[in-house]
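Hi F.,

I've been meaning to write this up properly since the lab meeting, where we talked about keeping a consistent format for the predictions we share between groups. The idea is simple: the sequence comes first, exactly as it goes in, then the structure tokens exactly as they come out, then a line or two of notes. No screenshots and no reformatting. I'm using this chain as the first example so we have something concrete to point to.
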Amino acid sequence: MTAFADRHIGITADAEQRMLDALGLTHSPDQPIEGAEDRVDPLEQLMRQAVPDSIFTESGESGIPLAASEAETLAELRELASRNTVNRAMIGLGYYGTFTPSVIQRNVLENPSWYTAYTPYQPEISQGRLEALINFQTMVSDLTGLSTANSSMLDESTAVAEAMLLARRASKAKNNVFVVDADALPQTKALLATRADAVGIELIERDLAAGEELPAELFGVFVQYPAASGRIWDPSAVIDAAHVANGIAIVAADLLALTLLRSPGSLGADVAVGTTQRFGVPMGFGGPHAGYMAVRAGLERQLPGRLVGVSQDASGYPAYRLALQTREQHIRREKATSNICTAQVLLAVMASMYAVYHGPDGLRAIAAEVAGKAALLRDWLADAGASVVHEDFFDTLNVRVEGEAAAIVERAHGAGILLRLVDADTVGIAVDETTTFTDLHRTALLFGGKEERVFGFFGAGSTGALPESLLREDEYLTHPVFHSHRSETAMMRYLKQLADRDYALDRGMIPLGSCTMKLNAATEMASITWPEFAQLHPFAPREDVEGSLAMIDQLEAWLAEVTGYDAVSLQPNAGSQGELAGLLAIRGYHLANGDDQRTVCLIPSSAHGTNAASAVLAGMKVVVVACDELGNVDLDDLRAKIEVHADALSALMITYPSTHGVYEEQVVEINAAVHAAGGQVYVDGANLNALLGYARFGDLGGDVSHLNLHKTFSIPHGGGGPGVGPVAAKAHLAPFLPGHPLAQKDDHAGGYVFEGGAVSGAPYGSAGVLPISWSYIRMMGAEGLRQATAAAVLSANYVAARLGDHYPVLYTGEQGRVAHECILDLRPLKEATGITVDDVAKRLIDYGFHAPTMSFPVAGTLMVEPTESEDLEEVDRFIDAMIRIKAEADAVAAGMWPSDDNPLVNAPHTAASLISGEWDHSYTREDAAYPVRELIMTKYWPPVRRIDQAYGDRNLVCACPPIEAFA
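Output, unedited:
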């Protein structure tokens, strides 16, 4: 049987030999390699040349189990899944049962054309995803009644925290007071406490529905609508009072409820936030789900995250692209207003397609049925003598049962129903679209209801127990896209059309440096839709989720093993949140030691931009450390900065291997200098794919790191999310890792208890996709992970060697090797030929490739990362394309083609551009469309020509354009 590692790693033994030949590492088996003791393996020699001796780890004993086959792995997962019990969840608190339309599950969630795509930074080859996200933004904007929505947030609770920060910078009030609704979701209140404390915001809780007055000074007010208790009330007076105080009014709203209720915008809100989970996205034990944020006119440029806009291409046709805030933290660094650099694209696509499939009438009917069933349950409970606390509600009831709440919740659990224990006298019950009349009847029986019921049918016009004064009267989702795909046939074809406009890993290599676009194996993906994992409520009782908890403990232990740390928290639901959690752990450690003056964070100038933004959000002051001409941290400048800030030094954030794609030789010395001054070392784990099996962060001096499961551990990028960013730490920092008030257990792998503040709405973050990384490690084993690292490093060095004569490789290590990625310097090309990095990136589309990472970390460069998953044929195809593009640029410089009319500046070429009108270019149609003959059978045609980014920012449109625009 073929080992999984051999399926995952694209380089065969024969290909490996040819690549090593190109690197000058071929040798006779009986000829020892100088300086490598008795080793004769040339691939091992390459790794010794790349990885510094001071951190190099020999292959040996590991706590990772031996690699399992794909069948064995699925069997083990089935056994873990069998330990979970999927009861009828009626807990609510922002997580609800929902029906995922099969056409969406099969054609989006389970379709590699959607889940293997990258963030749409190259918009010409991302038009399908971008249209789906425009649909999402339109859906959110319409339902919230606000002018502009972004293309998703990480979850509801983090969206509220981001809205709080938006309010502070947008408000004209000069104070640090933020008012929180006492009836907000408990997980949101916990997360707000974490985020506010780090940046000096004072939280004041008020029972707003009960009429408690606002403080005299505030910069923002947050209202839950409907409230966590289910109560519905009119917050417009509170919103008006906030505005009088120069504050910003934020409303967390349930989108399904908004199909029946007045929108936050109509009530005067400035910002609306929430989740789209109940729009067809399974609960997944807490995630991933697409949060949302929408703002009134005037706040568009304050939005965190990503915003999709409409621009036009070179032919003047409408085209989508990311607008305004694209990777703003990489540009503004410590001045960034948010550290978020991912969204929840795959889940936002699912939620948007749920709205497209059902349309406004279908959504309204689902909401009406939920409201009607909740009201019916209220009537049955009243018959039983129970007291429903609130008269007005949508889907959630709080029921008073003096002293009996715990017993009722326990009886319900025994009957297969999960209710919420609010307090000793109160039970919470939530109804959703999956709740049946049988569920309602069985629930009423728990409160002493009748054994038999006779009731009439209520139709789609029901408004349940909603107050008439708050019923919605305006229309929404009026765009034709929400009315055109009612049949499954139409929906299937629409999803296929959108997917065909995109470039994903199912088409070819995506050689993005810093992003690790590797194989997302089908076996790894198989279990995420199993009901035992997908249908779990994140606050279900511990005994219902023992299988998931066991899997989580195993994954935590494995990640600790491969990184050299002691404890791991899987709660952060993005790499940016993992960064923040790690820095908050360092902050908590210093405060516990009485070192509250330690607030300075040293960050190399080459670092990921999110590092600086995360440090600011953790309450730290950023001090930049210079890099030398080789891209390494400047040791002299580091020592000088340490000396100046020794008493205030909190941490150093360093990416290893470096952002420049090399293994810094002095990393142990760097970390020791920080420790000697009393600081902690944060090692950014973004480039862990170049290290696994050969070195460990904890061994080279790291105290804490975040990991990117969507990079190194094979969770798909999903077109820009989901991401998972666990935080791993040494034992002394473990107590300060993220805890959660609603977690099923306090202890984690290794027996550690985390007491830090929550950084995500759910205790285990995006738990629904953790089986992917669990499966990856289980099937690779320690040796497979090591082989993957070597294959990735081999491929990157092969690319550097073959392209070095055509494009300078900007940075290498002391022995002339790169890590898992290399930076090609295109600035000399521009100087000699006038051809820019943008021209090369767009011309690669004509050759059938996604471009590498552009102008990061150095402007005018391309960062290339082939990963271990690509075979030599595909790597060579990319290399040959780059060599041909260099020849094309030289032809422009030689005068063969004009500088303003050549295949590069006009790239990419659409099919329409080749057949419309007379061909009056200086090059042939064949030059444009088929620069190599191999493309004739497999050509990818971009749907639009080069997009005018500046036009889109000057004419900001972030909702579905009218059909006439495409005429």
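Notes:
The first helix runs from residue 4 to 8.
The CA atoms of residues 62 and 782 lie 7 Å apart.

If this format works for you, I'll send the rest the same way.

G.
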